[in-house]
UniProtKB/TrEMBL annotation, chains A, B:
Pfam families: Aminotran_1_2, GntR. In the C-terminal section; belongs to the class-I pyridoxal-phosphate-dependent aminotransferase family. InterPro entries: Aminotransferase_I/II_large, HTH_trans_reg/aminotransferase, PyrdxlP-dep_Trfase, PyrdxlP-dep_Trfase_major, PyrdxlP-dep_Trfase_small, Tscrpt_reg_HTH_GntR, WH-like_DNA-bd_sf, WH_DNA-bd_sf. The keyword NADP does not apply. It comes from the Bacteria. This is GntR family transcriptional regulator. SUPFAM superfamilies: PLP-dependent transferases, Winged helix' DNA-binding domain. GO terms for molecular function: DNA binding; DNA-binding transcription factor activity; pyridoxal phosphate binding; transaminase activity. It comes from Pluralibacter gergoviae. Keywords: Aminotransferase, DNA-binding, Pyridoxal phosphate, Transcription, Transcription regulation, Transferase. Residues 1-69 form the HTH gntR-type domain.
């Protein structure tokens, strides 16, 4: 970091902490130069940087003043996707993003990884070692088809918190929530079928639909209350829809928790039109509120909800331990699990079962909920600070994703291409739409610790967005160049 | 074990070892009674048991004589399945068998588990502990989509032994060979497509086809040389077949290694008719001959062979580490991997990569090849000893499966149902046919150590088969009763 950036960050922190109040005059260039032992031009550069960040405003002949405090940007409006079944595109973009994931020099704002560096995760490490020492025979052998019973018993207990009443026998363990959802889809749908999704919708889910030749119909979704029940009903009337995929609790990417009344409305719609509900509850345990919000499954009286979840976001992705509570589809789900992958790794199942049983899971979860909530506050502040005026920002009620809507003219696909050269990976909104909508949007993974490094990356991201607004053509040209370069 | 059974086994062992020669007279009942300090009736019972095992024959007024030594039963003839595309059935039977797998009181002759109790596997246990201690960050994080590079590099080296030339980038790691094959099928086929299979064919593969709504056409297969090239060509001429699934090396369940010339004939047929080859090489490393037999992939010049394999049979099923070398289908395979399950568990990948790198894999494999070869000898002997005359028996050239063809009138599905009550699980031949053929056949897993316990189980199995021959109606009634009991 250069000297002037360092100074600018210092001043920005003082403004944020209120040491310099709103509309207060800042020290003169000369005073600062003497106080910090830097040159006049360094101070001038720092002030210009703060000005570009909308933190200070110059007044001719009297110096710089703290800018009037901006209110939190508004929440994005209800989305308006094309409401007809479409084939999912965007695979190339997803693949590029996945490819970047394992370059350790890259800052991955676009991925979905949780924070796995917290000390409350250490007992898991001990449980894994213990499992290997005490169960060599079992960890080397085939698992049973539904998964380890001791794990399913722990999961059944955990799910009570969300109102889901299921016995160990009602649960089928899978390789993460991703496999849970894919098996659920394979069990219910055929190629050519139509499935309704929230819009925006997690790109992994979307690519699953593409893989299995299922068409997606994107339903307008409110960033605070979830899928539009009215729009869903209209779609159900118009199209032969097989099911709807919902992330009702701590939605990815929008962060909402659907109000209970709306959850029940969707469920009764599903009953009326006889469709399945694929409930993706992977972030449900990370809700800000305690006790955690209820699942749709908790009101499911006729087994049409296939509840999918995992320990990926709450504990660690590398465990690959997820599950599905398939309701009336249990036989088909077991068969599709057998067809797709047969059995899972026993060692990680045994380790996470012990982690839950010994109470480590709840301690860890409590900690992570606090951390992610605080992170989102900080990242929201940075968005306000570094991004242009006119953005909209979600107010996540859990999880660790932030969704930013930028001015219409910003093409985040181009910006993402430029940022790759700076070793920054972001997820443009278009990944979250079957047909590439939301190019002016962006999902940010706030699980990345909000340290100085990530603040600097957010600032770089903001600069790239400013550039895209100021010279949109140039950024397109640069992006194309970069794409060509990338493909060579 | 009762006293008379113990005595019978002792005498049987002496006969097998040649201490009592062929047609030699055995000691009188009185002599044995004095020698072993048992009652006259115990000796009489022991002799009657040996007689029922066809090891000795009584001669009126002169006592018991060692029975003339039987020649090894003939190899089964070329199979003759119905050569038209059919929908796969038999799922209920497979599920029943899988359900039984995790009851530790059951002897699982029907499953496919390797022997994971050998001391040459201990280093794997150490490598797993080491991985967990040294890489906590990595084992908790997401894997990359194609799988851990250090593992793919080791796999690339291993595959050279079978003539397969592939770089780490050509390999996609999967959750076992099962997932490798299912992803390969999803990448190439659509529902309604037709795929050719050897007949008999592993039931897991068959159920995959059922799960994905792919029709199977079963091709006549010779138990010594593999799929009939002529019959395959006829089928290709008659039906729009998308691909053929082959277990060319150490076939499951028949045990053959396809001669190289035939492998090349099938490959050139595939080129001529432009179909894909799904090569399941999971047992390939367990061939009796060294160096191991070549893969079809090793002659594949246009990338139409999707080679699938894993460490499940050679090392341990609980690792869930397999791979596919997808050739020209790489992009589709990566997409289907993402759609079906996304990424795999990193810890077991890292452990097995170290196990291979440090040379433990080759040591273990050498040992296991010897063990399985010896086991098959012993189990073949027991088949001869305990099963009725007129059986046919395969001569496996690797792997650990033995295929027994029993007299036409034996219904192994019924026998299997009876045996379940005796806590013995067997795999009736019908599991290996799309339409339930081979009801008079049986696959035996010779990886189970040929100890006294398993000898006794083989004897029980033989008795059940004898009963089925002597009173076929009764066994059907019993089986139905058992099924009803089971379902309650």
């Amino acid at each position: 970091m250069t000297r002037y950036q360092h100074l600018a960050d210092l001043l920005a922190a003082r403004i944020e902490q209120g040491l310099y109040g709103e509309k207060e005059k800042l020290p003169s260039v000369r005073t600062l130069s003497q106080q910090h032992g830097v040159s006049i031009s360094t101070v001038q550069q720092a002030y210009r940087l703060l000005e570009s960040r909308r933190l200070i405003v110059p007044q001719p002949r009297s110096g710089y003043f703290v800018a009037p405090r901006q209110a939190l940007p508004p929440v994005p409006a209800m989305t308006r996707p094309a409401q007809r079944p479409v084939e999912v595109t965007q695979w190339d973009q997803v693949l590029t993003m996945l490819d970047a994931r394992h370059d350790k020099t890259i800052t991955a704002f676009g991925g979905g990884s949780p924070d796995v560096e917290q000390p409350t995760l250490r007992p898991l490490w001990r449980e894994m070692s213990r499992v290997i020492q005490h169960n060599p025979g079992e960890i080397f052998s085939y698992d049973s088809l539904p998964g380890r019973r001791e794990l399913r018993e722990q999961i059944a207990r955990l799910m009570l918190d969300g109102g889901t009443i299921a016995s160990a026998d009602d649960i089928v363990v899978t390789s993460g929530c991703h496999a849970a959802l894919s098996i659920a889809l394979l069990a219910v749908c055929k190629p050519g079928d139509i499935v309704a999704v929230e819009s925006p919708c997690y790109y992994g889910t979307m690519q699953m639909l593409r893989g299995f030749d299922i068409k997606a119909i994107e339903i307008p979704t409110d960033p605070q209350t979830g899928i539009s029940v009215e729009a869903l009903e209209m779609a159900l009337e118009q199209w032969p829809i097989k099911g709807v995929i919902l992330v009702a609790n701590c939605n990815n990417p929008l962060g909402f928790v659907m109000p209970d009344a709306r959850k029940r409305q969707v469920l009764s719609l599903a009953q009326r039109y006889d469709i399945a509900i694929f409930e993706d509850d992977i972030y449900g345990e990370l809700a800000n509120d305690y006790p955690r919000p209820r699942t749709l499954k908790s009101w499911d009286i006729d087994g049409r909800v296939l509840l999918c979840s995992s320990f990926t976001k709450t504990v660690a992705p590398g465990l690959r331990v997820g599950w599905v509570v398939p309701g009336r589809y249990r036989d088909r789900v077991l068969h599709m699990k057998y067809a797709a992958s047969a059995t899972n790794v026993p060692s990680t199942q045994l380790a996470v079962a012990a982690f839950v049983r010994e109470g480590h899971y709840h301690r860890h979860l409590r900690k992570m909920r606090q951390i992610y909530q605080a992170n989102i506050e900080i990242y929201s502040g940075w968005c306000r600070q570094y991004f242009p005026c006119g953005i909209c920002l979600t107010r996540p009620q859990g999880g660790y994703m932030l969704w930013v809507e930028l001015p219409e003219e910003v093409d985040m696909v181009c910006v993402a291409t430029q940022l790759r050269r700076l070793k920054i990976q972001v997820a443009p909104g278009s990944l979250f739409s079957a047909s590439g909508k939301y190019r002016n949007c962006l999902r940010i993974n706030c699980a990345l610790p909000p340290d100085e490094k990530h603040r600097a990356v957010m600032a770089q991201l903001g600069e790239a967005i400013y550039r895209a607004i100021e010279a949109p053509e140039e950024s397109v040209v640069m992006a194309n160049g970069a794409i060509n370069g990338f493909r060579q």
